[in-house]
Design brief:
2 copies of one chain form a homodimer. The first copy, chain A, has 136 residues and is mainly beta. Chain A has one domain: Jelly Rolls (Sandwich), CATH 2.60.120.10. Chain A has 1 helix and 12 strands.
């Protein structure tokens, strides 16, 4: 039986996310690879507690659907927002942001990148502990 | 606690789907409405056992992510495929198809429509009981 704790397991856990763009342990399962017909990349992402990605932008925008645990989402210059299962975040093209797990809970989301003919992702600076802990 | 039976409840149940395009009881919760920036519409759809949509096409294509229960998916001229939690179906632009619950189980999927600048959906004929029961 699935529970909220193992919902992420409706998908295989996938591969470790690259350390160049992520802090902590993050698992990525690609669900829809890039093509030039659907122009959409979709992945299931599991962040262990404390893990997060670097600051980054998407030229075609992104939609996050939180499915389990408690996560953080932040756009540059704004406070960190909590994300819980069922929350949906729309990220407009070019908006600088990061996302990840909260300090004490794993977090899983589906990440949907449409309009990839405009680009998928541009990675920037790491999210410092000071930035991450600004949730306080 | 969420279980596989109530996973769909991480989203509100939403509105009854229009009877013109659906047979049986179907609930649609719109997660991302149409816009001209993300060009993507996303909805969570809950089909009660036996319910299905009409034959239809998407000019921009569609991706289905099954999250709970057991469903059916069929493209014109091909056999019905079973869908279970974690299954992902990519539907290319213009491909005639339908989806819905299996006869004895509710079914929930997330429906992602990218490239809506090309169109969202064109509804066609109802799925007859003979077509629906061709899973036998």
């Amino acid at each position: 039986m699935n529970t909220s704790e193992n919902y992420g397991t409706i998908f295989p856990k996938g591969e470790r996310a690259p350390a160049d763009y992520f802090i902590g342990t993050v698992w990525i399962k690609n669900l829809v690879p890039a093509d030039d017909t659907l122009n959409t990349v979709i992945a299931n992402v599991v962040f262990e507690a404390g893990a997060r990605n670097n600051w980054h932008t998407h030229a075609g925008g992104q939609i996050l659907i939180a499915t389990a645990g408690i996560g953080y989402y932040q756009e540059k210059g704004k406070p960190i927002r909590l994300m819980r299962a069922g929350d949906v975040v729309k990220i407009l093209p070019g908006v600088l942001h990061w996302h990840g797990a909260s300090r004490d809970s794993e977090f899983t989301h589906i990440a949907i990148n449409p309009n990839i003919q405009k680009g998928v992702v541009e990675w920037l600076d790491r999210v410092s502990d000071e930035e991450y802990n600004s949730i306080l």
